[in-house]
Amino acid sequence: MKRIGIMTSGGDAPGMNVAIRAVARKALSAGLEAYGINYGFAGLVAGDIHEFKATDLDDMVSQGGTMLYSARYPEFAQEESQLKGIEQLKKFGIDALVVIGGDGSYHGALRLTEHGYNAIGLPGTIDNDIPFTDFTIGFDTALNTAVDAIDKIRDTAKSHQRVFAVQVMGRKAADIALWAGVASGADAIIAPGFDYDVEAIANKLKKNRANGKDYGIIVIAEGDANSDAAPEFVEKLKQYGDFDARATVIGHVQRGGVPSAKDRVLASKMGAYAVELLLEGKGGLAIGILDNKVQAHNMLDLFDAKHQADDSLFQLNEDLSF
Ligand code: ATP
After folding, report:
1. How many domains does the chain divide into?
2. For binding ADP, which residues are annotated in this chain's numbering (predicted)?
3. What distance in angstroms lies between residue 33's CA and the mean position of ligand 1's atoms?
4. C or N terminus of the chain, fewer CB within 10 Å?
């Protein structure tokens, strides 16, 4: 093996640049060449590929976003597109790849492995929704952004005795909402997989008010990208009492920003490990971290598995918020 290709694919996440740097630097220090593929599988098919020099990666350890850009390219599910991608790999002499993205991107990586080009997947998504890993690259940064925003909203909620329903990202996953809810001391968390009762939340807020806490914070997961989850909740809440309630959708700010130290270390560990696996001639594997140990799982097993959020956080928040 002489040349490794690197791409980011699917939704972007803070820490992707750190992962790119880790893969490229580890490859260079192992005497390999590293090539960046822009725009995910779309760029692979188009041949939008360039060689990395060590200096290209200088400040990537602290940069948000992805210097390789990201894209969705559903056409790559077609064999015809995959063969075009293979032609480009041949043309650029790339022998193996690291694909940084979500589980959709892993499908593309597996197709390349099946065509004889070993590919390893790194979990790059703020949603933390990938099986066989406790954390994905970008989750910690997005979580901290969300908590920082909620802390600020708390200030204004207190000043005006308001209830704020704060909507966080995560798509179908509950992780950002659960972690952000506990970390910001939310009065309630509404997240996929957890039943809730608007009237019970309204009663809790009224009880808080009677006890002297005259503002409230409800953290709401977007739940399958419903951009109106928080406004819809506010309308329902108002039916159960005289609340000065507002909705705030934190939005895409959660996808940007300087990666946290934890995400940087995670991305560095995972990126370097991916190169080690490729050097061993392995492909079709997805990297994860379980109990603080970086490890790899077969992508086929991963597709059959389901991500499990830390359910205990929901009850913990119930126990601590009154
Ligand atoms: P996120 O979780 O942020 O959405 P993702 O990687 O799951 O990231 P997708 O849009 O599902 O995002 O997939 C990213 C890209 O991976 C697709 O645009 C496509 O290029 C490729 N891809 C997805 N599914 C397949 C598939 N079945 N076969 C080949 N390639 C695929």
Report:
1. 2
2. 21-25, 154, 185-187, 213-215
3. 26
4. C
246 and 263 share one domain: no
pLDDT for residue 58 = 87
| Residue 320 falls inside a structural domain | no
139 lines ligand 1 (CB under 6 A): no
* 270 plus 226 within the same structural domain: no
Same domain assignment for residues 283 and 203? no
With 90 as the cut, is the pLDDT of residue 322 above it? no
**Residue 310 appears among annotated catalytic residues:** no
Is residue 169 located within the same domain as residue 70?
no
Does the structure's ipTM exceed the value 0.95?
yes
Region of 182 please: left (phi>0), alpha (psi -120 to 50) or beta: alpha
| 310 found inside a domain | no
Range of the domain at 157: 140-256
Please give the average per-residue pLDDT across 61-90, as a whole number: 97
Give binding residues for ATP as ranges.
Answer: 11, 72-73, 102-105
- What is the residue type of 233? F
CA distances from 163 to 14, 46, 82, 101, 246 (A): 30, 50, 51, 36, 6
Residues β-bridged to residue 96: 4
Catalytic residue among 127, 129, 140, 175: 127
pTM of the model: 0.97
Nearest in space to 21 (alpha carbons), one of 271, 319, 307: 271
| Amino acid at the residue 124 | G
CB neighbour burial string for 292-314, b if at least 16 within 10 angstroms, e if fewer: eebebbebeebeeeebebeeebb
CATH number of the domain within which 225 lies: 3.40.50.460
Output DSSP code: residue 11.
S
pLDDT tens figures, 241-296: 999 999 999 999 999 999 999 999 999 999 999 999 999 999 999 999 999 999 99
